[in-house]
Amino acid sequence: MNHVRLDASDNxxxxxxxxxxxxxxxxxxxxxxxxxGHKIATSDIKKGMPVRKYAQIIGYAAEDIAAGSHVHTxxxxxxxxxxxxxxxxxxxxxxxxxxxxxxxxxxxxxxxxRVGTRNYIAIVTSVNCSATAARMIADAFTPxxxxxxxxxxxxxxxxxxxxxxxxxxxxxxxxxxxxxxGYARHPNHAGVLMVGLGCEMNQIDWLLEAxxxxxxxxxxxxxxxxxxxxxxxxxLGIEKVRAMLPLANEATREPCPVSELxxxxxxxxxxxxxxxxANPALGHACDLLxxxxxxxxxxxxxxxxxxxxxxxxRASTPAVGEKLVGLVKWWEAYTARNNGxxxxxxxxxNKKGGLTTILEKSLGASAKGGTSPLxxxxxxxxxxxxxxxxxxxxxxxxxxxxxxxxxxxxxxxxFTTGRGSAFGSKPAPTIKVATNTEMATRMAEDMDxxxxxxxTDGVSVEDMGREIYQAFLRVASGEPTKxxxxxxxxxxxxxxxxxxxx
Length: 502
Known about the structure:
The protein is α/β, with parallel strands linked by helices. The chain has helices at residues 131-139, 143-146, 171-184, 204-211, 224-227, 230-248, 278-291, 308-312, 318-337, 348-352, 358-365, 398-407, 437-442, 453-456, 461-476, 482-485; strands spanning 3-4, 12-15, 24-25, 28-29, 39-41, 50-53, 56-61, 70-71, 76-77, 104-109, 115-116, 120-125, 154-158, 189-196, 219-223, 254-257, 262-267, 295-298, 374-378, 388-392, 412-417, 430-434, 449-450. It has a seven-stranded parallel beta sheet with strand order 19-20-18-17-21-22-23, sandwiched between helices. Helix 1 (131-139) packs across helix 6 (230-248), helix 3 crosses helix 12 (398-407) and helix 7 (278-291) crosses helix 15 (461-476). The longest helix has 20 residues, at 318-337. The mean pLDDT is 95.
């Protein structure tokens, strides 16, 4: 077999390997070289007619396309979606696992009832002006210092490039405050030190007041101007964190129900196999998690564009579906007023891997959400309060998207990739899933699971989904991921900047 067909109604198939000209593919012969992962027309497609993959429209023929032709950016064009949405017409209720039979993992139970998968002390900055101070404080806690506190995973500084030069209200300010609040109370943090400059727009005191955060031995704040300079701030910060360490070290792992897992469903460096192997497998893992009472959080709104109608059909209520459609409309307006297009999203690497339009990419990306009902739709970095399969608004840029998901409460991240990614995150660890065996072998130090075995070894999507789900339990119980082992996560905290910088 040299190709894969995803649905009988499709008029393209995907090359499993590079195919020379003159090779038979179904009932046609290739008219030129077809690269691995790229599409082949299986019938003549007239100019302006839809091109179908996954039984859905992925674009329109920009010219007459002969059967056997390579279908890609040179002859396939994008158009904005024009969809009549249905709500709740494809509901497939989950068969929930009885509580007495549910799985467990070894996690950290917090006083507020939430459960962590890691045990960090966080240094959270309100503004870029305090970023260096935060880094200096964190850098003081070397592995030699921390070896005396074996239950503490590390001291992590979460620094960013904004916090001032922005409006004091509106979407951008509120999103940043939600990020700070989400990291300040994240269950993977045993202790938190918030560091500001003092005169910034994003005032720490406003955050404390707005969200009712109270200072105590494991939650401290300070700013450089009040402490009287950088050096004194760093010295005081080190003193404060040093006092937190023995208290944080008292936390120990104990059995916790899988219902306490909230997993960020993420992809990056996608290729044509993402929607065929890794993403459907992660979707099955999400269904298994939801059946246990756990939560999966899909994000990257631009990367469900053109597939959102499939998600609205799974909306548990019309209000949930309408909220998702509202996000899509916001993004159409957002890209238009910034002289962009929703089709700007596929990167050069995506296209080299066989993806042509955002519609094609989105149909594959949305598969990470499985098949269970969509139970909630949330703003960027908003606390995820629904269980089961949910959605969070975010950009398609991986670090910004994952930052929002973690702020919303995700204590694990699962990240599929086809081109290869070196992404990692703190405080929630990232499990990376390869879409193809060639890349998984080449980047073995970075990939935790090889979903390419679905094509190369005949593993079923369901069996691969169970393998990913079991990885959730092991990593949640403390097994380090490949990205953790390589020290990733300190520079991937990127709050989404919405609005003007002034």
